[in-house]
Amino acid sequence: MIEIRIPKEINDYKEKLFLGLTLRQTLSIVLLVIINVPAYFGMNETFGSDVTTWFILLNAVPIVVVGFVRPNGMEFEKFAVAFLQTSVLFQQNRPYITENLYEEIANIVQKEKDDRAQAAYLAEKALEIARREEEKRGGKAKQESKTRAPKAQEPKAPKVKEKRVKKEKPDREFVGAHLRK
After folding, report:
1. This model's pTM is above 0.70
2. Residue 52 neighbours by CB distance under 10 Å
């Protein structure tokens, strides 16, 4: 059976050019061969194989990194630019700050309590001011209030005590008797 590998993300798809390598990887290998093979044969006679090998390894690492490594899914040159911008050029202290929802809810509830308390205080002050105004007018208001007849109170309904009635449980023999036949 033929199997076709389908990537989950379309941006992750890279066309394979030669031996399962992408164009970028193939070009990095070709560049390694072009630079390091002549360097090896030219330096081996002068410096010896040990120094030449170290030179070739140190020369090959940046080329391999650029061709094969993809940090955070970006090409290496894009990653290097982003890293330099965030770490060197535009470096700034970015503190970790969270949003505490419980604290925000507590603040809202406290504000509502404060608003209610302030409204009650203002209502109390308004009543006090009204009383003072009434007192300033003189005893006329007091005399009128004394001559008025008190309001008639509505009679309260007597409390009735409810009796609890116990429900009888059905007979076990009767329940389902028609199903047994």
Report:
1. no
2. 19
Element of type H or E holding 17: strand 16-18
Residue in the structure block whose two tokens are 């076990």: 172
Reported as type and span, the H/E element at residue 104 is: helix 101-137
Give CA–CA dist 58/80, Å, rounded.
19
User: Among 34, 35, 21, which Cα is nearest to 67's?
Assistant: 21
Lowest mean pLDDT among 68-77, 110-119, 120-129, 142-151: 142-151
Provide the CA 152 distance to its chain's centre, in angstroms. 62
Helix axes 140-147, 101-137, angle to 10 degrees: 90
Q: Which residue(s) pair with 112 in the sheet?
A: none
